Amino acid sequence: MLVQILFALATAALSSALTLGLAYYLYRKRWLPRLEEELRTREALLDEKLAAFGERLEGHVRRGIVDGVAALPSSEVIREGTRSLARTGLEVMNAGLDSLLGPRSRKR
Asked: Out of 8, 56, 67, 73, which could bridge 77 as a Cys pair, Cβ 3.0 to 4.6 Å?
């Protein structure tokens, strides 16, 4: 009875080893080269698409910068806006200081 169990276990182990060996052989000789070729094909296609996308993106960015610079207001408008902003800031600061310290008395 023990011999029969050992014989069954040895047969199962040998069968598993042969199955794994056959699967490994098929993987290395048939499936792996096909997978590598498919990967190379897809990689080349991806490189082409990325290059085209990069060129389009560069063109869009360039046009956006040119349009943005063209839409900037003239230097006079910027200068007046800056002066107005500075005046408003000073008025707000004076109002805040007046509320904290009280109004200034103007002595001459």
From this structure: 73
